[in-house]
Amino acid sequence: MKKALVISLALLMALTFCACGSTESEKKQFRVGMECNYAPFNWTQMEESNDAIAISSGGYAGGYDVEIAKRIADALGMELVIVKTEWNGLIPALNSGKIDAIIAGMSPTAERKESVDFSDPYYKSELVIVVQKDGPYASATSLADFSGAKITAQLNTFHYTVIDQIPGVNKQTAMETFPDMIVALKSGKIDGYISERPGAVSAIAANSELAYIEFAEGSGFETSDEDVAISVAVKKGSTDLLNQINDALADIDQDTREQLMNDAVANQPVNEE
Amino acid sequence: MPQSFWGGVVFIAEKYSTLFLNGALNTLLLAIVGTVVGFLIGLVVAIVRTIPVQPTDSFVKRAGLKVLRGIFIAYIELFRSTPMMVQAMVIYYGVFSSVSPDYALYVGMFVISINTGAYMAEIVRGGVISVDSGQTEGAVSIGMTHWQTMTSVVLPQAIRNIMPSIGNEFVVNIKDSSVLSVISVAEVFFTAKSAAGTYMRFFEAFVIACVVYFVMTFTITRILLLLEKKMDGPKNYTIHGSQTTPDAEIRVNGGGRDK
Fold first, then answer.
1. How far, in Å, CA of A23 to CA of B103, rounded?
2. A86 vs B101: CB contact, 8 Å cut-off?
């Protein structure tokens, strides 16, 4: 008798749990991992302005990656959920199924391709050189103009290797972080550092005495797609999802992408008053 | 945003105030849960490890205790000899790989609790050893069981002795919970990284984190000192009072423990 009671109770509980499980929202979730601290690709802001998406751990996610994620989620007919994740945790989170995709300004390098699959690029950044606004290199237009200049770049990045393409450059020791290079540049220890354009725009927004030099096509650095492109990462073997993402990305043309990036650069929290 | 250093600090502190507050609450929660649960784990492990075994005891009791002690020692050694950051990665992305990222905070609590438990087990064992063996002998001689001896004689003294160490663990937990940022727990360090990357101002963001950590640890150490004072009881007290012969009264003035 007692046993029967216990079993029926257990059954009842199991049923209740099942019922809880089935009453989820109609729309399936598309969980996207990003750091939310890599402006202007992704950042954390406190207001819901510029159509930012709420993060469960607090604040709102905004930036170029978020805009791309929104468009992909729309194309998939799913509800976008931003999962704020530490950079080194992004790939483990993807492979353990905690998130469905990584849209975090991530370049499709050969090493990463070993453990995840990448979509077509959704942005290609160009390399620029950040200099002092009133310095001797402020009016440079080609790599040759930087002959003799003290140039550096971030440690362990391809930014540092492309410095060799500048003829007669005075290559300096690589530096750990961008703020380090900004300080070195402001104090005159270096004449310039290599950066991707969005990063340079952000650095200038926060430091008004700096400027960056863009190069016309053909007179700048030669780079490979693996370095300058950024792509959406999905779990290895999820071909269906990858195809759908590629279709969604194909619908976002080059002009729209530039516009989205310009908006992100203009709207990022650094520019707040 | 303002160009000056202090301007930047004030700007970020104002903008991110709710996130930093939320981060501080999560950090405190992790430290409190970690220290309390870790302490309970430590108590259980220490009590079991000090159960006396006589050759006359049944085989089941002896074998069971031996196995249990083996497990506890393996647990202590394993968790003391690997960094909490590595434990967090292994547990979050390995053992709990199917857990939703919304529960990162709970996984964080689990990690910090079992990590602290391993240290606490040794701290409590140290406390138990520090109580003179005459106390245990006295308790046993009046017929107390091991459990009674522990709960009414040894542990009350042992816990008072290890209070400074427990306080240390608490403070260490407040600061070390920052390594749980690797599994994306939104505590103070994780928040500071967000602020730094969002505003491109690293020094300013981490100065704020320093201040938040300092305020928390300093407040906690003061509270723990007060708690210790309370545990010591009053400085002046009467051991034996007598209404008829006042001379027979035994009074202690300036007793208790010196700091």
1. 20
2. no
Q: In the prediction, which pLDDT does A125 show?
A: 81
User: Is residue B171 within 8 Å of A67, Cβ to Cβ?
Assistant: no
From CA B113, how far away is CA A46, in angstroms rounded? 31
- Give span(s): CATH 3.40.190.10, chain A: 25-124+230-271, 127-214
CATH of domain B5-252: 1.10.3720.10
Q: Among candidates B226, B227, B191, B184, which has minimal Cα distance to B211?
A: B191
pLDDT at B57: 86
Q: For residues A261 and A200, is the Cβ–Cβ distance under 8 A?
A: no
Q: How far apart (Å, rounded) are the C-alpha atoms in residues A14 and A37?
A: 42
Provide CB contacts within 8 A for A214, sequence distance 6+. Answer: A126, A128, A197, A220
pLDDT digits (tens, 9 = 90+) for A180-222: 888 899 999 999 999 988 888 888 888 889 999 999 888 889 8
CATH for the stretch A127-214: 3.40.190.10
User: For tokens 């930047």, what's the residue?
Assistant: B8
Q: Indicate the domain borders of chain B.
A: 5-252
Interface size between A and B, measured as CB pairs under 8 A: 108
DSSP bridge partners of A193: A130, A152
CATH class of A25-124+230-271: alpha beta
> ipTM, 2 decimals?
0.81
pTM of this prediction exceeds 0.90: no
Which pLDDT belongs to residue A88? Answer: 87
Extract the runs of DSSP E, i.e. beta strands, from chain A: 29-34, 43-45, 53-54, 60-62, 79-84, 101-102, 116-124, 127-132, 150-152, 170-171, 192-196, 210-213, 229-235
Kindly report, residue by residue over A88-131, the tens digit of the pLDDT. 899 999 999 999 999 998 989 888 999 999 999 999 888 999 99
Q: Which of A59, A86, A272 sits opposite B184 (nearest CB)?
A: A86
Q: How far is B207 from chain A (nearest CA, A)?
A: 15
> Is the CB of A88 less than 8 angstroms away from the CB of B182?
yes
Contact assessment for residue B52 and residue B136, using Cβ atoms and an 8 Å cutoff: no
Find, among A5, A270, A232, the residue nearest to A120 by Cα.
A232
Residue of B nearest to A36 (CA): B194
